[in-house]
Design brief:
The protein is α/β, with parallel strands linked by helices. 64% of the residues lie in helices and 9% in strands. Strands 1, 2, 3, 5 and 6 form a 5-stranded antiparallel beta sheet that branches. The protein has a 5-stranded parallel beta sheet with strand order 7-8-9-4-10, sandwiched between helices. The two termini are 45 Å apart. The relative contact order is 0.09.
């Protein structure tokens, strides 16, 4: 499917939304819509059966056999209608599930490799809370549109066939519903957009406060954090209530017109059957059967319009979600070099050389220092905060592309063809540790081997950390390492780097914010890694760690 360009996206956001969400499942939605319309067409037949039976009872000509036949016919038509509705639901929910799964997979796969500006909490809330709001739009709106284009026309024709006055009443009352639906729908779309923004910002704030909870409590700011969270929750409540108020307002207006229309039909039919009204039909007065039939189909004339009104709000919420999807697509992000897939280690003797390299980041360029590193050598990148030490490590790992210059690894330029294989020869110790939701044993040593695991823990001075955990190597630490300190988390990262093998260890501020004793343990663990023949590059402000490395390179802003 051809993607619209940026100007088309800006000029036609709703067209863009339909192309992205509806077009891939349009065949399924059309099939479901016409099946739903066919199910709706069965109601006039059921109404005719009921009207025939009642007219027979009133005339005294209805026998038990006729009643049984009417009941069987009504039940058979109802069963067929239920089967059609079940089939429609199955088609629609499969289409919605596949659409949501596709968009969620695209977001998670892209953001894991090329994160944009929104934080992880905003991305998580979008994937878990906002994307499911597409489901009602997919499962209700298109089917409601098909039904409203078929069923009211059919029922209006049947009403005019029996009574021109009933037909005229429905013809006047019916169009008022779409008019007010459109007016209220514009306000609903704007309110839904504001609610989406508030959900994302609240999740960002929650994750930020949880990650800093220890510092918040140490600083005595727990009450202030709770007050901020309460204010944000109140703002979200206000946004949500604004959406609900619009929904209830529109429902009230639509139900009012529907009730008035049905009431006018009921009054006309009742007074006609009593002989008080002698006009409104085609020459002859309405019979009991005709009157009952009109009373039964009048509410169904308004039902597709009511369904469309309800789905209109779902459509507004869906447009708001797609608007955020488009904004996330267009956000500036760093491109990952390579595919980010598992690959065999890059062949060749180890060496690393950086010459005139300039890292390409969203909205800026960062000049990297010239570096040469041979097998088993150590290097410290020093300099002020913001100078580019962490970016230099990321560029060496192939996590940030170059705008110019060259990074050479094992005799070959670091680029899309070599990045995955190069990363198989390095281990990264980030400043902020992230633990996946798996057992510690599987995270440290994904290829198994308890003997090697014990040796790595001893080398990293981390055996005591595992021994203190209630479940030992089977513990699940949580995303930020709940139950262990920052220094302990980094020593576990060193153990993982030992088990990962390879020729180069990249450590980003491994001793930051640690006391002297804990920092000394990290330095000793890195030196033990180097003693095994690993090359080590650290980005650090710590003079003790920098002095322990063989060479130092100053990174200037």
């Amino acid at each position: 499917m051809k993607q619209p360009d940026t100007s088309d996206r800006r000029a036609n956001p709703r067209l863009r939304a339909r192309r992205r969400i509806i077009a891939p499942v349009a065949r399924e939605l059309n099939r479901a819509g016409w099946l739903a319309a066919l199910a709706g067409m069965l109601w006039p037949a059921q109404a005719a059966v009921i009207a025939w039976a009642i007219s027979g009872w009133v005339a005294g000509a209805g026998s038990l056999v006729d009643t049984i036949l009417a009941a069987v016919a009504f039940a058979a038509l109802g069963g067929l209608r239920a089967l059609l509705d079940q089939r429609v639901g199955a088609i629609l929910f499969r289409a919605a599930d596949s659409t949501i799964a596709r968009e969620r997979q695209a977001i998670l796969g892209r953001e894991a490799r090329r994160p944009a500006g929104p934080g992880s909490a905003a991305i998580a809330s979008f994937a878990v809370q906002k994307l499911p709001l597409l489901q009602p739009w997919i499962t209700r709106y298109h089917v409601a549109m098909v039904r409203v284009s078929v069923l009211p026309v059919l029922l209006l024709a049947l009403s005019f066939w029996l009574s021109w006055l009933v037909g005229l009443t429905l013809l006047v009352a019916g169009p008022l519903i779409p008019v007010f639906m459109a007016l209220v729908g514009m306000a609903a779309e704007d309110a839904s957009r504001r609610q989406m923004v508030e959900i994302g910002s609240m999740n960002d704030m929650l994750l930020d406060r949880l990650s800093a909870m220890t510092d918040i409590r140490l600083l005595g700011a727990a009450d202030r954090a709770a007050e901020d969270f309460g204010s944000r929750a109140e703002a979200l409540r206000a946004r949500t209530m604004a959406v609900l108020r619009i929904a209830f307002l529109s429902s009230t207006v639509l139900e009012l017109f529907a009730a008035i229309g049905v009431a006018l039909v009921a009054v006309f039919v009742g007074f006609t059957l009593l002989g008080e009204i002698t006009f409104g039909s085609w020459g002859t007065p309405l019979t009991v059967g005709e009157g009952v039939f009109l009373l039964l189909i009048a509410p169904e004339f308004f039902q597709p319009l009511r369904d469309l009104a309800a789905a209109w709000h779902d459509r507004a919420a869906g447009f708001a979600v797609v608007e955020e999807l488009d904004a996330l697509d267009e956000a500036e992000r760093s491109e990952l070099v390579g595919k980010g897939e598992r690959a065999a280690p890059l062949a060749g003797a180890f060496h690393l050389r950086s010459t005139g390299a300039v890292a390409s980041l969203p909205g800026r360029r960062v000049h990297l220092p010239d570096i040469f590193l041979g097998a088993g050598e150590t290097l410290a990148l020093t300099g002020p905060s913001g100078a580019g030490k962490s970016i230099a490590l990321a560029a060496i790992a192939g996590l940030v592309p170059l705008a110019s210059g060259r990074i050479e690894v094992c005799g070959r330029p670091l680029g899309p063809d070599t990045a995955d294989a190069w990363r198989a020869r390095i281990a990264l110790i980030p400043q902020r540790v992230h633990f996946p939701d798996i057992a510690l044993r599987d995270w440290l040593a994904p290829r198994g081997g308890d003997a090697e695991l014990v040796r790595a823990l001893d080398m990293a001075d981390a055996a005591g950390i595992v021994a203190r955990l209630p479940d030992g190597l089977n513990a699940r630490l949580g995303e930020t390492g709940g139950g262990i300190s920052g220094g302990e988390a980094r020593r576990l990262m060193v153990a993982r780097a030992i088990l990962a093998g390879g020729d180069l260890v990249l450590a980003d501020e491994p001793t930051a914010d640690l006391d002297e004793v804990t920092a000394g343990r990290i330095v000793a663990a890195l030196l033990r890694l180097n003693a095994e023949g690993r090359a080590v590059i650290v980005a650090t402000h710590d003079p003790r760690l920098a002095a322990a490395m063989g060479r130092q390179v100053e990174v200037s802003a």
